[in-house]
Amino acid sequence: MEHEEIYLLMMDALDDELPQAGWDDLETHLHTCQACAQEWYALQAIETLLRTTPAIAPPVDLLSRTLGRLPHPAYRTWVIGAVYGLLLLSGILPVVGAMILLGTVGTVLFDPAFLGGLLRSFWESLSLLPVMVSALLNLIGAFVSQQPAIVGVLLMMVGIIMVWGGVYSQLVTTTPRLASANAAA
Amino acid sequence: MDQEQIWLDLARQGDKFAFGSLIEAYQGPVFNLAYRMLGNSGEAEEAAQEAFVRAYTRLDSYDPAHKFSTWMLSITSNYCIDVIRKRRAIMLSLDEPLPPHPALHSDKAAGPESQALMNEQQQMVQTLLQELPDDYRQTVVLRYWHELSYEEIADIMQTTVSAIKSRLFRARRMLAQTGLEMGLIQPAELAAAEMV
Fold it and tell me: Which fold has domain B1-91?
């Protein structure tokens, strides 16, 4: 018999599901194959070890500690209700506020002169943007040229943080080769 | 209607004491599974508590067509698998002894010698189990300490019966091989020679 067939006989034997004919075939093979005899011996030893090792008893206070962790149903209901209430208010209140605001200052807001002045101010602010960006870049350039050591240290720190961050993410997020089914309970 | 079903119905209505009866009935199997999977009594206790909390908050999703024990063990094993994936450090090495579990120091022991032998046996089993891949270990634990059928194990692990048989087959061979390599099992010829 092929070894794969013998292994199947061994498994059935360990499960107490091997018929007599199978036992005869298994014993015949074990008398002639030292490797299978060795493996069968080891399998039986493991089987005996596992079957004679009792289950581990839980701590005596597991029940009380678990009960203490169970969420309170009424509390959950209140919390969920409060969250929904806040979400509702956070959506309604701005709308109501905007309507009141429009009602009180609407005539001013929609005045053509006011709107024109507003647009002019916005446009003038946009035209100042290149000046502000240029000033900021000049400031940064001056800092880099006057304090190169500080800039170098900062860049080195950023590099170290990125390297260790990459190492950490590889260690933590890498899925191990050992796979198991996910069940949604 | 059996007692367990009564407890479940009361628990769904928010009766924590009814759920406490369920905890009392299943804390042994749940804790044993968690301990065998995680190899650490502290983490096993945390896992057992978390499994029961999750079951309590998801009682509405429990399908009475399945046994409650199967559902409970499914939650426990899934949580343990998540813990193992997050845990990067190896819990045990061959050189480090397993921290003794408080239950191993039970006053119910017949005597110090038998208690020491049992501790050694538990350590041996746990060392062997930690050498297995997670799904193999899970299959072995459910088969040997919970005496579940292949169909029930397949239901918990959401796979087929043939896959479970294959895993158990490979797990047994791995345990045997590991036992020989670690010297926990003497080769057959040595054992035979000692008997002469």
Answer: Rna Polymerase Sigma Factor; Chain: A (1.10.1740)
